[in-house]
Amino acid sequence: MTPYRLGILAMYLSEQRLEELSYFRKLSTYGHKLGIQILVFTPDDVDKNKKKIKALVYDVASGKWQRKWALLPELIYDRCRYHGVHNFHKISRFRAVHKKLHYLSSPLANKWSMHQALSEDSVIADHLPATVRYNDHQDMIRLLKQHQRIYLKPRNGTGGRGIVRLQRISNSTFLMQGRDEQRRIIPQQKISESQISTKLSSWRLQGRYIVQQGISLTLKDGRVHDFRMLIQKDGKGEWQVTGCAGRIGPMHSVTSNLHGGGTAIGMEKLLMRRFGNKEKVASIQQEAYKLGIDIAHFLERKFGKQCEIGIDLAIDPKGKVWLLEVNPKPSREVFYRIGERETYRKAITRPLEYALWLHHNKNKNKIPEEQD
Q: Which Pfam families match (predicted)?
């Protein structure tokens, strides 16, 4: 029987290097068991007639990648992480030219537009930190005077790049630290209000950044933490919380991302370390899981069908759950790092099982077109 084909849309970072090749190999291995052939390609691999691709195909028997020409698959799993305006325009052009293809997920909005959209739902809005778009220095100062700490975040940033934290220690004195666009740690420094704009003058904040209320994320040892939840469609097309894990940043870092040197820990273990009460921990987990499913349903209604969503959560000292960020192309390595191998397996196989569900049901229920 000819295997069902699933295209993985990726992006070259440099010199034909793909960012998630290890993940694509695992997808190919599990896909082989499910009767799915995985074809990895980028917009640069499409022929001039826009009908064929020079795909990267993993041969499970030999354990090697091979290049082969193939027709564009009907269904596409978009794993492009843009890393710059040029790549963003490249993938946008591909999706515009190939709008008749079916995609497992529709595009989501940048951080500011996402905050505005999520604010429309009263239940979700209660979990959102105060957030404004950076138009000028006063936007930042106003929020900083309302809250003890704020974060400056690039609207289209990923992986903790370019994030700055400002913390008020007196009416006129602040602590500033963060990470630059290469994820390098910016050491903590004490500055005055008048020095803030000078220190950040080269960052080109206007129109590119948001300013967000900072939730207390610091553990007793001084390191920051948060939680990454992965929500995915299963083999029946239903939303499920695949898992949730804690992430603890390295010393002197304002972010907890694993790519920035963070470490992973089980959600329940980290919550028990903080609250020491099983009933309290169970209540927090229940609230977080319900919020995650609510967000997934809302985003699908707002932006069109989705396959999976990564959600970054914060739990404040009182146990309230806060939504920090939504990621439409989440990683799943956090579950491997905490030893939850079955969760990690589900995190890899669920997009494949959902793709099969779409394939088997396309004659009964035509795969919906992506929203314009």
A: ATPgrasp_YheCD
Burial (Cβ within 10 Å: 0-12, 13-18, ≥19) of residue 84: exposed
Residue 51 located in a structural domain: yes
pLDDT tens per residue, range 249-308: 888 788 777 877 889 999 999 999 999 999 999 999 999 999 999 999 999 999 999 999
Domain that holds residue 38: 4-103
Q: Specify the pTM.
A: 0.90
Q: CA separation (Å) from 337 to 246, 264, 266, 332, 346?
A: 11, 6, 9, 9, 15
Q: For residues 168 and 207, state if they share a domain.
A: yes
Q: How high is the pLDDT of residue 271?
A: 97
Q: In sequence order, what DSSP letters do the residues of 49-94 get, joined into one string?
A: TSSEEEEEEEETTTTEEEEEEEEPPSEEEE-----SHHHHHHHHHH
- Average pLDDT, integer, range 176-199: 85
Look at residue 293 and give its three-state secondary structure: helix
Among 221-225, 317-321, 322-326, which stretch is predicted with the lowest mean pLDDT? 221-225
pLDDT tens for residues 156-184?
876 667 888 899 988 888 999 888 877 78
189 CB-contact burial (10 Å; exposed 0-12 / middle 13-18 / buried 19+)? exposed
In contact, 321 and 306? CB cutoff 8 Å: no
Instruction: Calculate the CA 165 to chain-centre distance.
Output: 20
85 is written with which tokens? 């305006």
Chain centre distance of CA 27: 18
**Same-domain status, 206 and 234:** no
Would you tell me how many other CB atoms lie within 10 Å of the CB of residue 369? 12
Say how many domains are in the chain: 3
Last residue of a domain, one of 213, 229, 263: 213
Instruction: Report if residue 269 sits inside a domain.
Output: yes
Q: Is residue 370 part of a domain?
A: no
As given in the structure block, the two tokens for residue 46 are 């499409």
To 5 degrees, how large is the angle CA 144–CA 146–CA 148?
60
Domain termination residue (choose one: 167, 185, 213): 213
Beta bridge partners of residue 67, listed in sequence order: 56
Pairing of strands 185-192, 173-179: antiparallel
Measured in residues, the chain has a length of 372
What residues does 54 pair with on adjacent strands? 69
Q: Cα Rg for the chain, rounded, in angstroms?
A: 21
Residue at 369 is within a domain: no
